[in-house]
Amino acid sequence: MELTETHTLPVPQARAWEALNDTAILKACIPGCDSIEADGENAYAVGMTAAVGPVKARFKGRMELTQIDAPHTYTIVFEGQGGAAGFSKGSAKVNLEPGEDADTTTLTYSAHAQVGGKLAQIGSRLVDGAARKIAGEFFKRFGAQLQGAGEVEQAQQAQDGAADGSDGSDGSDEPDDSAGGEKEEKGKKSWTAWISKS
Q1: Half-sphere exposure in the Cβ direction for 155 (13 Å, CA)
Q2: Does domain 2-162+174-197 have CATH number 3.40.190.290?
Q3: Residue 86 · residue 119 · CB < 8 Å
Q4: How far is the C-alpha of 131 from the C-alpha of 48, rounded, in Å?
Q5: How far apart are CA 147 and CA 150, in angstroms?
Q6: In whole angstroms, how far apart are CA 52 and each of 40, 131, 183?
Q7: ∠ CA 122-126-131, rounded to 5°
């Protein structure tokens, strides 16, 4: 199976790179993904459920980032086992380039994969179709996450700016510096909570 696509992301290149390396964002965007955990340097253990034609199974696998050239490119090497459903393994080269607009990024990837077991028996057309569907859903969610995160950050900055003048919401007499520190910490927590709920 081979899959090559190009997508425009609604954020600058550095932010896109940061998001592509954020496991919380990736977990929220990968369809059927229920876990991504660090498994060595630049490597992750992944658990996800996927349906390919009549075959639906939970896959456990590992992906490793190689040939890293931040914030321009890296290669993902992956392998997964789905029990009786079979297995998949392959790699994907991901490239990021500044978009025509300064606030956008062009992402291009080229993936090559092999499947075995029942997955190989159902035919390449169904496997390719399922892979394109999963990839399409991922980038739909990824773009929404990036756009939504930008809106959350802007709203948080506006809220922090408005709160700098007075801090009477909780009747606290603490100095401005510590209050600002608390607000900044609350902002970080709400951002993390927003990502995890999305």
Answers
A1: 10
A2: no
A3: yes
A4: 14
A5: 5
A6: 30, 8, 46
A7: 125
What is the Cα–Cα distance from 153 to 84, expressed in whole angstroms? 45
Total residues belonging to the chain = 198
Query: Each residue of 6-63: pLDDT tens digit?
Result: 999 999 999 999 999 999 999 999 999 999 999 999 999 999 999 888 889 999 999 9
- The 10 Å Cβ neighbour count of residue 28 is 19
Q: Determine the Cα–Cα distance for residues 13 and 63; give it in Å rounded to an integer.
A: 23
Domain ranges of the chain: 2-162+174-197
Task: Give residues with Cβ within 8 angstroms of 166, minimum separation 6.
Answer: none
Give the DSSP H/E element, type plus range, for residue 39.
Answer: none
Tell me the three state secondary structure of residue 41: coil
Q: 29 Cβ partners below 8 Å, 6+ apart?
A: 138, 141, 142, 145
Q: Write down the residue that tokens 């025509």 correspond to.
A: 100
In Å, how far are 55, 119, 124, 177 from 83, measured between CA atoms?
Answer: 11, 11, 19, 55
Q: Are strands 73-81 and 87-98 parallel, antiparallel or unpaired?
A: antiparallel
* pTM for the whole structure: 0.72
Q: What is the pLDDT of residues 72-101, one digit of tens each?
A: 999 999 999 999 999 999 999 999 999 998
Q: What is the pLDDT of residues 59-79, one digit of tens each?
A: 999 999 999 999 999 999 999
